[in-house]
């Protein structure tokens, strides 16, 4: 079924309003051929392979002193604040924890509503080809880029404060989001000059996991929105920011449903308004990245919009298929929810409710947050269908999936147990 084109407001770069002028050479220090020759940027080169759950993990744990990458992100971000590159002061936005069991977080961010212009893209297709005529990250100003981020050649962390940009090898960039949701809000843009559309692959997701691990900060999370799940630019990117509070989704109970041959544990969320899968563990970072990547690729290939949250310094990943934009297009979302103009992407689904109207902020309640997120979630039946597809895709990739119950902490009544992938056992893990 063909759905109407959805207008989604977004401005992540100060140059989006000039995107048409940028096409033929702009002379304004962008990242295209007209300006990139001879340009230099800081380069952070991370250690390639770090075990998850192995002997080296404590060296990369969240309890370490401030990591260099962490200080680099914040130092460069603060520099751009001083240079006046952001569209508003996000530190002036009101924030509160909503009373209730889950601790949803509400932020009043009127700047993301009042100072934006709409961008058009289709919501009925998760995979869409890259369109050079649309705004993309090669059109941002070089001053909006903080540094290059890539694997080290010698297996050790390295930093070069003024490195040349190797366009032919398409480096990955970390840039500011000029309409920030929180302090330190940045964009990770893998292999920027390849102009990849917004679709996860194995290499890009492993890169995002490395960033989470290298930052070594439990308050730094990365998020991903697919097309149809409120991604606003069809150029591959992840978002990340700092929030010194636990997200409600991180506190939700989970039930283990499988363990893969690579040591990755897959669970399902319980007692949360949005149904989703949780990935943890793995013998190596690649094991974890590959399992999540295969699941994401499966959803993309089956045209299922989804969001991803990378949490706990890369140790825990939430995969959240959703259908809110589809319901909007079909007229199945109440007018009351539509009036809030909240587009529930990865941060909202995780429990950080970014509200655009003072009225909604003042009336924020756990019931209202739950009501919105419940509209995001797939039905139980559809979620089981999608879960089965995901397990089939992962098993085809691994060739040796070993579902097993890990630790039975408590019994769940049979009335609450959904049908699972054949052969898998279930057990509950309470946080």
From TrEMBL:
Q: Which GO terms describe its cellular component?
A: cytoplasm
Please name the Pfam families in this protein's record.
GDPGP1_C, GDPGP1_N
Q: Which GO terms describe its biological process?
A: glucose metabolic process
Q: Which UniProt keywords apply?
A: Cytoplasm, Guanine-nucleotide releasing factor, Hydrolase, Nucleotide-binding, Nucleotidyltransferase, Transferase
Q: Out of the domains of life, which is the source? A: Eukaryota
Q: Where in the cell is it found?
A: Cytoplasm
Q: Which residues form the GDPGP1-like C-terminal domain?
A: 248-395
GDPGP1-like N-terminal domain mapped to chain residues: 69-241
Question: Principal place where this protein is found?
Answer: cytoplasm
Q: Is Signal among the key words of this record?
A: no
Q: Which InterPro entries match?
A: GDPGP (IPR026506), GDPGP1_C (IPR058865), GDPGP1_N (IPR058866)
Q: Per UniProt, what is one GO molecular function of this protein? A: guanyl-nucleotide exchange factor activity
Q: Which PANTHER family match?
A: GDP-D-GLUCOSE PHOSPHORYLASE 1 (PTHR20884), GDP-L-GALACTOSE PHOSPHORYLASE (PTHR20884:SF15)
So what family is this one in? Belongs to the GDPGP1 family.
Q: What is this protein called?
A: UPF0580 protein C15orf58
Q: What organism is recorded for this protein?
A: Cajanus cajan (Pigeon pea)
């Amino acid at each position: 079924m063909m759905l109407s084109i959805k207008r989604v407001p977004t401005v992540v770069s100060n140059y989006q309003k000039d995107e048409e002028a940028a096409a033929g050479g702009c002379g304004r220090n962008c990242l295209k051929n007209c300006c990139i020759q001879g340009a230099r940027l800081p380069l952070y080169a991370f250690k390639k392979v770090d075990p998850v759950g192995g002997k080296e993990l404590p060296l990369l744990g969240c309890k370490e002193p401030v990591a260099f990458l962490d200080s680099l992100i914040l130092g460069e971000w603060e520099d751009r604040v001083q240079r006046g590159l952001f569209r508003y002061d996000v530190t002036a936005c009101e924030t509160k924890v909503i009373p209730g069991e889950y601790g949803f977080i509400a932020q009043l961010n009127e700047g993301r509503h009042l100072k934006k212009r709409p961008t058009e893209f289709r919501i009925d297709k998760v995979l869409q080809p890259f369109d050079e005529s649309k705004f993309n990250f090669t059109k941002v100003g070089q001053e909006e880029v903080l540094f290059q981020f890539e694997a080290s050649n010698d297996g050790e962390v390295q930093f070069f404060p003024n490195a040349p940009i190797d366009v032919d090898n398409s480096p990955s960039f970390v840039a500011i989001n000029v309409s920030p949701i929180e302090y330190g809000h940045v964009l990770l843009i893998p292999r920027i000059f390849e102009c990849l559309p917004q679709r996860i692959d194995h290499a890009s997701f492993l890169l995002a996991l490395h960033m989470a691990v290298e930052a070594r900060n439990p308050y730094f999370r990365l998020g991903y929105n697919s097309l149809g799940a409120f991604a606003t630019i069809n150029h591959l990117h992840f978002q990340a920011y700092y929030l010194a509070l636990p997200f409600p989704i991180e506190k939700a109970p989970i039930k283990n449903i499988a363990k893969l041959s690579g040591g990755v544990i897959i669970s399902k969320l319980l007692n949360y308004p949005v149904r989703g899968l949780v990935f943890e563990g793995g013998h190596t970072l690649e094991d974890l990245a590959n399992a999540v990547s295969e699941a994401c690729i499966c959803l993309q290939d089956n045209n299922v919009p989804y969001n991803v949250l990378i949490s706990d310094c890369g140790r825990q990943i939430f995969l959240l298929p959703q259908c809110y934009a589809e319901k909007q297009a079909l007229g199945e979302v109440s007018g009351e929810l539509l009036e809030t103009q909240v587009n529930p992407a990865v941060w909202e689904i995780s429990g950080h409710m970014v509200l655009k109207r003072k009225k909604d902020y003042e009336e924020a309640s756990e019931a209202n947050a739950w009501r919105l997120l419940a509209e995001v979630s797939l039905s139980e039946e559809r979620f089981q269908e999608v879960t089965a597809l995901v397990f089939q895709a992962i098993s085809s990739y691994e060739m040796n999936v070993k579902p097993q119950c890990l630790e039975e902490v408590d019994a769940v009544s049979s009335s609450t147990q959904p049908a699972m992938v054949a052969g898998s056992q279930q057990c509950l893990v309470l946080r």
